[in-house]
């Protein structure tokens, strides 16, 4: 039988809590960055409620992970996040000129190897 996401989901909430704690963030810090109330994060982490997919994507972005990391029990084709994936996400957030400089520097390093 297929498993469905319930109104409140303990797996998603506990994963958000774990990722938040690894990054040394409080619930309030995460809530502020996602622009929701602190009680919303508390209810999410305790499994009392589930947030919209848009809010979960924002949480994943703030926690610097792919959304699949938070929804891993509900995605079919999970790809483990690699260090390179994490760096690519960070680079994509930079202005285009800085992205070009990083790519140029990386190409020079690869040529040296």
Q: Can you offer a commentary on this structure?
A:
The protein contains seven helices and no strands. The protein is mainly alpha-helical and 113 residues long. Helix 1 packs across helix 3. The chain starts with 9 loop residues before the first helix and ends with a helix. The N terminus is likely disordered.
The first-to-last residue Cα distance is 51 Å
Order of helices and strands: HHHHHHH
**SS field, number of helical segments:** 7
Number of strands: 0
Strand content: under 5%
Low-pLDDT residue intervals, each spanning 5 or more residues: 1-5
Helix content, binned percent:
55-70%
The largest sheet is: none
Q: Based on helices, strands and strand pairing, what is the structural class?
A: mainly alpha
Mean pLDDT: 83
* Rg, nearest Å: 17 Å
Shape: elongated
Write the topology of this structure:
Blueprint: H1 10-22, H2 27-34, H3 38-46, H4 53-62, H5 67-70, H6 83-92, H7 96-112
Summarize the structure.
By secondary structure, the protein is mainly α. It has helices spanning 10-22, 27-34, 38-46, 53-62, 67-70, 83-92, 96-112. The chain starts with 9 loop residues before the first helix and ends with a helix.
Key phrases:
113 residues, mainly alpha, disordered N terminus
């Amino acid at each position: 039988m297929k498993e469905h996401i319930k109104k409140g989901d303990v797996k998603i909430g506990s994963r958000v809590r774990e990722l938040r704690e690894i990054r040394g963030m409080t619930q309030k810090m995460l809530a502020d960055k996602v622009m929701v109330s602190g009680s919303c994060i508390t209810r999410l982490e305790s499994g009392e409620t589930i947030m919209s997919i848009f809010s979960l994507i924002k949480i994943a972005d703030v926690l610097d992970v792919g959304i699949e990391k938070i929804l891993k029990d509900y995605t079919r084709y999970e790809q483990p996040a690699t260090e390179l994936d994490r760096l690519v996400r960070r680079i994509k957030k930079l202005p285009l000129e800085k992205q070009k400089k990083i790519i140029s520097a990386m190409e020079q390093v690869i040529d040296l190897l």
